[in-house]
Structures are given as C-alpha cells and as structure tokens.
C-alpha cells in the first residue's frame, strides 16, 4: 500500500511536529484536535520550526510553503480521517482518553487506515482492543522529529508482521531513523538507557559523592558530550523527572525523587521555568 | 608546595600516558617498572601519541622533543623516587601487589613526596595503611589522558584536606578537568553512570527487545553521539566488560555476563581482537 494521506490526532507539540514533517515529506496532512486554540499554538510552533529549517538551509522557502499548503487543521474527526492511509495519535498521555479516541476511530476510519500511537509511556496492547483492528495497530513513537530523529516501531503481540516494513519505510520518508522494538517494552529503547544513566547520576548526588557540576563534567568530558545528566534533566523538566522517578521502587530512586520534589516545589522545573539544577 | 618532579610507577598504558603528559606540561618525569621490555613498549606508545599530537598541532616538534628530554625510565625504584614531589602509581590492578609497592615506597620515598594511586577499581582506603603517610595519600585517577581528560580526585577518610587543591592544580597543569569524588566510591563518578547505561543496553539485548544495531542507533541518533553502548563495550574490551558484569548480583547482569562470555570464549574481545559485537 502507498501512504499519501496522514491524519494526526492531537495538535500538541509532538502532533504538530510529526504533522509538519509529514507535510515537508510530501504527504497530505490533516491535524485534528478538540480545541481551536490548539491550532493557533500549533501554527506558532510550526512557524518557529520552519524559520529554523530555512535558516539551516534544510528546506527552501518554496518547499516550506508547499508543505504548509499540504497541511490543514480540523475540529471534525470524520473529516480528519476520511482519506487517511495512516493515523498518528498524539493525544494526552491518559489511558482512558486514548482508549476512547481509538474506539471512536474504530467506528469512523476507513478500512484501509493504519492506526499508530505515539504514546511515550503506555503499551500498545493496552489500546489494541479498542481500535477494532488490532492487527493493523502499532506503536510508532517519535522523539522530537527534528533533532532526535529516532522513531520506535513497537508492535503488540497481535500486530501483523507485514505492518513493520510499511512503518519502517514511512519512518524513513519522514527523515527518521526507524528502530524495531521487537517486544513491548516500557520506554521503548532509549528511555530504558536514559533512565538508568540519569538514575546513576542521581544516586551519586543524593549520596553526596560529588557536586552536580562535577558529575556533569565527568560525563561531558569523558564522552565529549554537550550536556551532562543534570543539564539533561533540566531540559526534560524536573516535574517530569520527578513523575517518573518517584514511581520507582528502590531506595536511591526514592531519595532522588525527594530531592527533585524540593526543586519542583520551589518552582524550579528546569529550562522551561528558567531554573532547575542550573539557571537559564 | 610546588610540584616539579613526578615519579610514575608502572610503565603500562596509563603510566606511559600520564608520564608523557606530565613531561609535555613541563614536569621532570621518571617512569619506574620492574621489566625493561615495558620501557620499549612504553616508548612505542609515546611515540605514536606524539605523532598524533604533532599532527593535530597540539604540540610542536620542539615541545615534544623537550618533553621527551624531561622523561626517563629506570629499573631502580630508589632512583625513581629520589627527587619526586609526587608519585602516580599505575601498577597492575592487584590489591596485594599495590599494597607491597606502597609499603616499599613508604620506606624509600622522601618525606616531601605526595602519594597518589591511579587505581580503577580499588579504594584508596585499602592501600592507605601501607603508605606510611595516609594523610598525604589520595586516589588521582586518569581516564585516558589525551581524549577523555577527566581526572578524579578521590580522598579516603584520612586524606589531608590540604592535598585536594594541590591535586586540583596539578590536574589542571596536566590539561585534565579535575573532579572531586567527596567520598570513596567504586568506579569514581563516570563508571557508575557508564555501567548503569551499558547494563540497561545489555538488558534490552538479553531480553531480545531489539538488535545490537537498533539499540546503538537509538542512543547515537538521540544524543548525536559517535558511539552506542555496544560499540563502547567493543572499545572497552568484552573481556573487561565480562569481568565487571559477572560480579554484579542481579539476574539481568548475570544474563548479560553469560552473553559476553560467549563472545570472549570465541576470541571476540572487541576492537582489540578485530571483532566483538561489530567487526573492525
């Protein structure tokens, strides 16, 4: 099958970025959301990304204009999916809400449509039964589309194996590097490694082995990396970091979560609030 | 106190690199070893590094020649330490051997000499009693001197606090980035983070969540990093990786150690043998 029409569910940060890249890659894109205000924010985000891509000479003005011409917004879900060859769902990370959205899509989407979820933390098997087409449903998870260009293809046990090469090809056409997560795994591939590494840094800090700066230096200088673990946590957001960490069972994670909580309670959420472990 | 004369114990890879950088930084360096063959290997290594530094325009030919003029080898330990302001010990990673070496230094080194160990895995407190001067003894741990320029300063409980700024300054003069490990910690700062991250990658592999290549891609593309975890393991050496991993108590580490063992048994040790997870 050939993918031409893409339906994005949810006009948030990721939905907008995926939608814009799809349009840049030549697909016809419809972005659906329940709130008109989301579209204004989405257009602002896309406009900012477009400026960056033009400045970096990744795309010309004409290419960007053509992409914007292929992208439209709608509050009507039936219109959004009417022609869709594939759906990429980026609605709020809430299990009940996502189940409800997929139950609705099961009713209104054409038979041809491939269903994919961009969920960060849920497993596709928790949604599959609601899609009405579990064999044609798969997690297809983007990182940030324009800088970290990995897309995780993560089937659930019922996903049709024939879907994998189709998504692999689609991912490449979206300028991503597709990787296959052969069985369901919370956090796909990258988060498992990232969380272990950040947790080890947190353990060093809460055990007062070294300062934030020295722990970061140790990582950055050894790996010639632009950021150390605490700068990465600031960029992720300390509220998000706390949310993940406080659910982990071990004593070191609990202690690190307690430390993160003091930052969050003080309004220090990282880059987005102007201060976290560092000031911005 | 001013450091002018440096004594290196052990003419292996790290001893040679530390000694050569010290000579490049203007110090007078004596490298001691028990085997004359070590000196020939050491000179070959240093000659190779010198070529690289000259090619990269880090040092001129004259600077390199002057450095080589400040560096000498000796099989006589009394001569090696006679003028030493500081000792950097890089002998084989064997507790009893290191204890024996420090007991000997306690007898023959001048009173002024600062004692440091470059141990990777041992704690300085396991050697302190043998030095005869525990307050003037500290771990001072290099990574590879020329690419990963972190030096860990890790005191044991009896180390005199006044030693820290002296080592910090000495580290900077050796073109390193000094970091303070405030209390003894196995693996200093970096290894704790590295092992967690590599362990998480190993867990993904042994649980058959993804291929070696896809796990590496996920890390590299997300972080724009030159190497993923399995390429890093190949560069560390799979024998060393097995040695560390098989001592860890958890089931995932045990499973990963068993996998590493199959590579080691097949002679696939990573970069140094021409094949590990990848071919070189």
UniProtKB/TrEMBL annotation, chains A, B:
Task: Say if the entry is tagged with keyword Lyase.
Answer: no
EC number annotated for this UniProt entry:
1.1.1.157
Q: Return one GO MF term.
A: 3-hydroxybutyryl-CoA dehydrogenase activity
Site residues (Important for catalytic activity), renumbered to this chain: 141
Alphabetically sorted, this entry's keywords are: Oxidoreductase
Which residues belong to any copy of the 3-hydroxyacyl-CoA dehydrogenase C-terminal domain?
187-280
Give the enzyme's main class according to its UniProt record, as a single word: oxidoreductase
Domain of life of the organism encoding this protein:
Bacteria
One GO term of the biological process aspect: fatty acid metabolic process
Q: Which Pfam families match?
A: 3HCDH, 3HCDH_N
Q: Where is the 3-hydroxyacyl-CoA dehydrogenase NAD binding domain?
A: 5-182
Name of the protein in question:
3-hydroxybutyryl-CoA dehydrogenase
Please give the organism.
Answer: Aquirufa nivalisilvae
Which classification does the entry list for the species? Bacteria, Pseudomonadati, Bacteroidota, Cytophagia, Cytophagales
């Amino acid at each position: 099958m050939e993918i031409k029409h893409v339906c994005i569910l949810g006009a948030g940060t990721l939905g907008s970025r995926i939608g814009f890249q799809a349009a840049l890659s030549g697909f016809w894109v419809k972005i659906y959301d329940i709130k008109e205000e989301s579209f204004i924010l989405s257009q602002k985000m896309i406009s900012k990304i477009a400026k960056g891509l033009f400045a970096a000479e990744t795309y010309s003005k004409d290419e960007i204009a053509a992409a914007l011409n292929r992208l439209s917004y709608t509050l009507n879900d039936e219109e959004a999916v009417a022609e869709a060859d594939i759906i990429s769902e980026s609605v709020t990370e809430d299990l009940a809400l996502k189940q409800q959205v997929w139950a609705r899509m099961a009713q209104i989407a054409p038979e041809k449509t491939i269903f994919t979820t961009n969920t960060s933390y849920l497993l596709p098997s928790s949604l599959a039964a609601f899609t009405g087409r579990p064999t044609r449903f798969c997690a297809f998870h983007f990182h940030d589309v324009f800088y970290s260009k990995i897309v995780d293809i993560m089937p659930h046990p019922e996903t049709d194996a024939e879907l994998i090469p189709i998504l692999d090809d689609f991912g490449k056409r979206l300028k991503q590097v597709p990787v296959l997560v052969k069985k369901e795994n919370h956090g796909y591939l990258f988060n498992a490694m990232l969380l272990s590494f950040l947790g080890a840094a947190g353990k060093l800090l809460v055990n007062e082995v070294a300062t934030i700066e020295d722990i970061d230096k140790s990582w950055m200088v050894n790996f010639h990396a632009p950021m150390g673990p605490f700068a990465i946590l600031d960029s992720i957001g300390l509220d998000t970091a706390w949310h993940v960490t406080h659910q982990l069972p071990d004593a070191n994670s609990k202690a690190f979560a307690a430390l993160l909580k003091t930052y969050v309670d003080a309004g220090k959420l990282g880059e987005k609030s102007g201060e976290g472990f560092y000031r911005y």
